[in-house]
Amino acid sequence: MPLPQSRALDRSAFLLAARGEPGPHTPVWFMRQAGRALPEYRAIRQGITMLESCMRPDLVVEITLQPVRRYGVDAAIFFSDIVFPLQAVGFGIEIEPGVGPVVADPIRDAAGLTAVRPVTPADVPYTTDAVKQLVSELDGTPLIGFAGAPFTVASYLVEGGPSKDHAKTKALMYSNPDLWHALADRLADVAIAYLSVQVEAGASAIQLFDSWAGGLSPRDYERFVLPHSAKVFEAMASYGVPRVHFGVNTGELLGLMSGAGADVVGVDWRVPLDEAVRRITAAGGGPKPVQGNLDPALLFAPWEAVEPEIDRILAEGKAAPGHIFNLGHGVPPEADPEVLRRVVERVHAKSARVPA
Ligand SMILES: Cc1c2[nH]c(c1CCC(=O)O)Cc1[nH]c(c(CCC(=O)O)c1C)Cc1[nH]c(c(CCC(=O)O)c1C)Cc1[nH]c(c(C)c1CCC(=O)O)C2
């Protein structure tokens, strides 16, 4: 059942664009907007591990709000991590600073699956508390809840940590498809459970991160991954909140990722948004709102070079029924917050609709 929400929230630039309705301006937020690029984040995280901080509602609320205050973005994203719901049920996983998620006992056989179980609300009371506090403090600004998609989370569990080629994960798909599908199915349940906790506490939208799916061929994606991500989207449909799907290097997969059940398709910087809309439309299901797609590397270029890129993306985004401006991937830790603030300012100024 869709949850009631305030009119201001319902008419926010972000939710209007996500539904493909015209709004006051093109909304903008940044993937990984909370994090090391912000000095106030580095200060508050001193001496506290990433996963510890996720269990402290006071910290989660403050860290989630920091980029909203600093950048003036049109949406907040809940501060957590894609591997957090596994840690919350006692699965042996840590986030090593500068490395990423690291797994004590990588999954090799069916016995390894038993530790992969979905959270219940009772496992993560602090998540419910933090979401509720955020929704009240954010007022008319939407909060995006998120989870990791089965493939991207599986890649950490099978490889044991970050990997460039995901060789062990792909080898598992081919050598033991039953085990692969059993793992991916459990991870779909893990994502559904964590997203449901966030939406039931008041999150206004969800994003399913399949960051590393771009390493797969369309054929392998369709066989091994799509049914599991589709299960997540299907399970979340009844909440009535917009469902965003994103991965890096997914130009060849945009149609399939849309077909998995996304309402909004995230696009990295490799495919222009108008071409992304063509690919999504060609796959059936009609044109859909898109999210993206400024190359994060541009944040390190002179401002004179950034401006025309913002304008180009806004123009190309007009091909979609709705456009949510974002980077093509996460904010790099070395990014200058002032540049991000100027990006928001320009997106708003350039896209403002003159009232009729
Ligand atoms: C693949 C992935 C992960 N985590 C996430 C993804 C998908 C998005 C993407 O593709 O970037 C998602 C994520 N992780 C984090 C958020 C918070 C909300 C936000 O976007 O602002 C979100 C949405 C916090 C975090 N998650 C992590 C940090 C940095 C660690 C720290 O600050 O101590 C933050 C702020 C750790 C993490 N966790 C993960 C990685 C690769 C890292 C980086 C390791 C490092 O460079 O130190 C796994």
TrEMBL record:
The gene is hemE. CDD domains: URO-D. Belongs to the uroporphyrinogen decarboxylase family. It is found in: Cytoplasm. One of its GO terms (biological process) is protoporphyrinogen IX biosynthetic process. Substrate binds at residues 32-36, 81, 156, 211, 329. The record marks 81 as: Transition state stabilizer. This is Uroporphyrinogen decarboxylase.
